[in-house]
Amino acid sequence: MSIKFMFQKIFNKKMSKNFLIGIGIAVILVAGLITIKDEFLFWISTDENTASQDLNKCADGGNVALIKIRGGIVNYSIDPKDDPNGIYYDPDSVSSDNVMREIEEAENNDAIKGIVVEIDSPGGIPVAGEEIMNSLLSLKMPTVAFIRERGLSAGYLVATAADKIYASRTSDVGSIGVTMSYMDYSKQNEKEGLTYNQLSTGKFKDMGDSDKELTAEEKSLLMSDLEKSHQIFVEYVAKNRNMDIEAVKKLADGSSMIAQDAIDAGLVDEIGGINEAKAYLENKLGEAVKMCEYAK
Fold this sequence. Notes:
Oligomer: single chain
Number of strands: 14
CATH architecture: Alpha-Beta Complex
Structural class: alpha/beta
Order of helices and strands: EHEEEEEHEHEHEEEHHHEHEHE
Radius of gyration: 20 Å
CATH superfamily: 2-enoyl-CoA Hydratase, Chain A, domain 1
CATH class: Alpha Beta
Number of helices: 9
Helix content: 25-40%
Shape: globular
């Protein structure tokens, strides 16, 4: 079983069947189904503080590393040159493997004294978000995150690992919750004269197959997993943000919120972007910030 903390996605029947073969059902952490549409429901423009910055490569100098969390968060990504047909490579994703490598390089670079984490993500796989979160929490240097368009689900989980979180006034933040919704094609198949031949050992082995109806017992089992995943997410947010867990539970209904509401709720510290993040680190470090990034 694969779990995702992610913004809601939808994909067609052919893609759905191929995706579910061999892995059962995907669990997605809020706002969503399984695969992203070509466009999201709405787009919000962020302010000038999130404008692109000219950066050096960290090998060429700089005292603060910029780590970019852009797109869906996955454990690893396939290099496009190894996937010429584009079946497994998703350019709109970031892998925890790559991000953790960048964090480790920054940690081992004596010139790097702080880290800025830029986040624009709908969420992703919980393990991947947790890996990035733990890598950031283990650092002994100051870290600051700023959320651009969205910091949702696993994307927000990563943000909670920073010492301070900024968001633009129109950023979309939060989405703490769990869903496992998916398309059931069994009735459509029946109309088309297709028969589902169940050939599996273990009564739950083909649970979540889109070509069969979900039984009450299967749904109960899956909901139990969802509730446990939800509780883990809530516990991480409460611990990392130093919030009362009951307060986080009240917020963890799967909804997202605009930045000021997130500040009022304790999920974000201040309105701001990359300039405010740099100013925060300049104050912490007592010196001018020169940002750099590691080669992808």
